[in-house]
Amino acid sequence: MKVKKSLANRRGIYLLPNLLTTAGLFAGFYAVVASMQGHFENAAIAIFIAMIMDGLDGRMARMTNTQSDFGAEYDSMADMVSFGIAPSLVVYNWALTDIGKFGWLAAFVYVVGAALRLARFNTQVATADKNYFQGLASPSAAAILAGLVWVGSKYQWEAKPWGFYIALLTLVAGLLMVSNFRYSSFKEVDWKGKIPFIGVLVIVLVFIFIAIDPPTVLFVGFTLYALSGPVMTLWRIKDIKEERQRKKALKKEAMSEPTIDEVDN
Q1: Is pTM, for the whole model, over 0.85?
Q2: For labeling, which of 3, 7, 22, 222 is most exposed (least CB within 10 Å)?
Q3: pLDDT tens for each residue of 155-173
Q4: Which residue windows are transmembrane per the record (predicted)?
């Protein structure tokens, strides 16, 4: 009986975090379907809902100690749909259908950028600096495109005459994901620590601005975050070079240290 139970536990998957991942995947798929039917505002909102689900599933897995290799792989597959395929197709259906080959190629570059970004993240997750992301995270890139579509839908913009510039933005967002620009992961923030009273007022003001005009605030906010990567990298280029030189020096020292067999001989 004990053997059967252990085998059942191995074959099973954790319900709660994977349920949240599935909800995010559903939101991404719904965004594609909604854009095909011309409901672009609903499509953009669905991508932001997928972002919320993506943020919750990992935290829930850590809180309940239900992390698993299956959950990590499933989350990556869901992210590819929700933050790679869905935003590119939504923005393509919204603004890029009339500019020909350049439109779908820009959307394709975005999809490739998201796929490469996720693959690089998965392979470097154990060794990367936790305080920074290398390249723009795919949810942030998706938020830029979804925010633009949401703003345009809310204010009833005629997007197709601006298709070339929107394609350029899509192209840049895709390239930023595979760039070497460093973006803050905000993991250095002590969320359990104390903050000044004025900090609480700032947080309240942020929520008020989002409530007043969600699409504009979210689009501007994530666009500024995307710009912060190149600015922060160029600002700290000297420190980054020194850090790389230190790592190379430490690696050389480690390789030049004698092994146990060499010492014995």
Answers
A1: no
A2: 3
A3: 999 998 999 999 999 999 9
A4: 12-33, 102-119, 131-150, 162-183, 195-212, 218-237
